[in-house]
Amino acid sequence: MPQEHSNIGRRALLAAAAVTAATGGRAEAQGLAGGKPVSIILPYAPSGGQEVLTRLLSETFMKRFGGTYVAEHRPGAGTTLAARHVARARPDGTTLFLATNVTFSQAQFAYRNPGFEPDTDFTHISLLAEALYFMAVTPQWESIGQLVAEARRRPGELAFTSWGVGSVAHLLGVDFCRREGIDMIHVPFNGTAPALTEVMAGRAAMIFCIMSTCRPHVEGGRLRALATPSPQRIPDFPEVKTMVELGYPDFVTLPWFSLSAPAGLPAEMASALEAATIEALSSDEAKLRLSQLGLIPAARGANDMRARIQSDRVVNERLMRQANIEPQ
Fold first, then answer.
1. Which conformational region is residue 135 in: left (phi greater than 0), alpha (psi within -120 to 50 degrees), or beta?
2. CA angle, 120 then 47 then 300, to 5°
3. I want to staple 159 with a disulfide (CB 3.0 to 4.6 A). Which of 30, 99, 185, 192 is the partner?
4. CA distance 31 to 33
5. Residues 47, 49, 53: CA angle, nearest 5 degrees
6. Exposure string over 46-66, b if 16+ CB within 10 A, otherwise e
7. Are 159 and 204 in contact (CB under 8 A)?
């Protein structure tokens, strides 16, 4: 397990907003935290979707509250390193957490002691966006039927990859194999890039990956998108059918990003952040920027986020049991 440490990411989000006041504009905005910089903690190494979400939020927060916002990357241990840091931070507005469904609806089934309690250690503010996924394979497989036939012919020889035990990619791969009654080897990696590389190199057959990450490889012919577990076909790839269309009932997933803070954040501050978050992701520009990354805006507030955590937790617990995953 990686050592817990602070890996400060790019500082493109740093900005100080000045307020035009009666003093002639010399006073600085106090911001969310009384003039202190606000850290937005990201649980992954730098990547497109979370970077764009953080930038969209920071731009709106600066307009509304003033202040300085810093993206801070704390990757490792299935997002739990970042979550522990936020759970232990002061609820004074200086720490926000751009988390994912893994953090709040999966980690407790993958780790015996994740180091935080999703329902009581955080002030949940809102979901941010939902992610579109592909079932991607090496180009030699032209259909799911062809892949399944080969897996049945060679049980225990073909592999699928993921970015970790208990990840979305792992659970979707297990669910697919269970439905088809086939035996494929799961090969986890510490990150999406090496997991994709293994498939593109032909050493593994399949991966369920976020569209934005594998899109250039699909368009470049290094991977083939056989299906999507999204509710509808992806507009930019209308030829790629959904798993439901291909005969897999209820094989639907929309992993998500969210915004939270440490438990005990003052109610007025939480409400202000909720309203600003919804504003940040409701503009046509934000929708366009996110759609280019395979993300769908989903900022609907704190109540919706808490309900989504609970419903996803039920599904993930079942999938973890089916995968015989024991907490590490």
1. beta
2. 45
3. 185
4. 6
5. 120
6. ebebbbbbbbbbbebbbebbb
7. yes
In the chain, how long is the greatest CA-to-CA distance?
78
- Compute the distance between CA of residue 192 and CA of residue 128 in angstroms, rounded to an integer: 21
Q: Determine the Cα–Cα distance for residues 48 and 42; give it in Å rounded to an integer.
A: 12
Contact, 173 vs 319, CB < 8 A? no
pTM (two decimals): 0.82
pLDDT band for position 30 (cuts 50, 70, 90): low
Q: What is the strand order of the sheet 38-42 is part of?
A: 7-8, 69-73, 38-42, 95-100, 256-262, 122-131, 295-297
Residue with tokens 């269970």: 178
Helices 144-153, 168-180: crossing angle, 10 deg rounding: 70
Position 21 pLDDT exceeds 90: no
Which domains are assigned to the chain?
7-130+254-322 (3.40.190.150), 133-227 (3.40.190.10)
Residue 18, class by beta-carbon neighbours within 10 Å (0-12 exposed, 13-18 middle, 19+ buried)? Answer: exposed
- Measure the CA–CA gap between 284 and 249, rounded to whole angstroms: 33
